[in-house]
Structures are given as C-alpha cells and as structure tokens.
Design the sequence.
C-alpha cells in the first residue's frame, strides 16, 4: 500500500476529545524519544507531519492524522520519561490509559522499543497492561541503523526469549529504521490487511 494523502486532524489533551471513532485507527506508543513521530513521518512519506525532537517528551497530546480519508494514524505521548514532573507523568499515563482502554476503533497499537536496549521495565509493564486489557498490539524495533544486522537479529532474539517466559505467543514484530527507511513496506502491508478486515467486519466497502 502507498499512502496517497495524510493530513493532521487534531490534538487532544483528553481521550474524550478524540475524533469520532468512525474509522479504523492505528496508534504509536513507546518510551519518550524512541522514534514514534519519526516512524509516522516515514510511513506517510511526509517528513514534517509529526513533530520530531532530540529532546524527549516532545509529543504531549494525542495527535490524529487522517490517512487517505479513510483511517487514522495516531501519535501518542511517550511514557517512562523521568525528567518531567510527577504531575505530568501521572497526567501522561492517565491520558494513555484512558485512550487505550476506551478507543473502540483502535485496531492495533504499535509499541515501539529501542532495538539497542535489552527489555526495559517500563516497556514490559506496558505490554503486561495491554495483555491484561486484551488490547491488540504489535512490537516495533526502532533505530536499527545504529546496529549491525547481526546485532539487531541477536537483540530481537533476546527480546523474543524474554517475552516467551511470560507470554504464550509472540505479537507481530517489525524491524525498522526511520533513518534508513527500513520496515515501511512491511508495516504498511500489515495496516492495509487490518483496514480491509475492519471494513469487512463493519460492512463498509
Ligand atoms: N538513528 C536514528 N535516529 C532516529 C530514528 N528514529 C528517530 N530518531 C531520532 O530520535 C529522536 C526522537 O525521535 P522522535 O520521533 O521525536 O521520537 P518520539 O518517540 O516521537 O519522542 P517523544 O514525542 O518525545 O516521545 C530524534 O532525534 C530522531 O531524529 C532512527 O530510525 N534512527
Ligand atoms: Mg513524538
């Protein structure tokens, strides 16, 4: 699939302010600075669409982007960034929790993890929260341009072994680099299949 049009729709400070849930939606989440906004720009082919920053905590609202007039990509604030105030952190996590628990049109949540790191506590806690709430998700390894192919494969294998200690099956997994434009086709194909399945279930098109 190739994205033909991508437009910023709105920023929401509360889950209840999000657009009407009348079309399938895919959201990107992960620790601050992991590369969520960069990946949205890679997928849409528009480098300035989602705001990217070297300073963690750039995205603080729920940002909806309307794609091809038929589905949403959503850029979420990061979690697990310690240098914001406690209030802010609580605010972030309530915003995120409200969003994931209540968003009926959320088809898949892409959880981004830094390919260079071993499983991080905040990520594992978040994945467990998703599992407990039966939220469909996929795991996306980011910034693989910073590693050799061998090192990436070995880190991904380590992550899978870790997950299989407590999960019965693995989620869909994607290996990406926004810098090297890697993983774009695979992600878009996955999204396309999900959009088609969603349409067939809701009786549209
Ligand atoms: N080398 C490399 N750098 C990347 C990649 N993706 C993102 N970055 C860099 O990582 C930093 C953070 O990227 P963002 O896309 O803003 O990350 P984010 O997860 O949206 O961050 P917050 O909105 O602050 O939570 C920026 O300096 C990006 O240029 C990648 O694939 N490779
Ligand atoms: Mg961001």
Sequence:
């Amino acid at each position: 699939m190739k994205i033909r049009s991508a437009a910023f729709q709105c920023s929401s400070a509360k889950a209840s302010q999000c657009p009407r849930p009348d079309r399938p939606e895919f959201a990107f989440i992960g620790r601050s600075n992991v590369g969520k906004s960069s990946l949205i720009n890679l997928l849409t082919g528009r480098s300035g669409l989602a705001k990217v920053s070297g300073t963690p905590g750039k995205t603080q609202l729920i940002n909806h982007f309307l794609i091809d007039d038929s589905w949403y990509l959503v850029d979420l604030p990061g979690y697990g960034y310690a240098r914001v105030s406690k209030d802010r952190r609580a605010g972030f996590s309530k915003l995120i929790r409200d969003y994931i628990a209540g968003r009926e049109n959320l088809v898949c949540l892409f959880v981004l993890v830094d390919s260079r790191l071993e499983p991080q506590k905040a990520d594992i806690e978040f994945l467990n929260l998703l599992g407990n709430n039966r939220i469909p998700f996929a795991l996306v390894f980011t910034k693989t341009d910073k590693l050799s192919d061998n090192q990436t494969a070995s880190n991904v294998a380590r992550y899978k072994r870790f997950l299989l200690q407590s999960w019965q099956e693995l989620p869909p997994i994607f290996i990406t680099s926004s810098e090297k434009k890697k993983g774009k086709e695979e992600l878009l194909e996955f999204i396309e299949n999900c959009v088609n399945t969603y349409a067939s279930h809701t009786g549209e098109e």
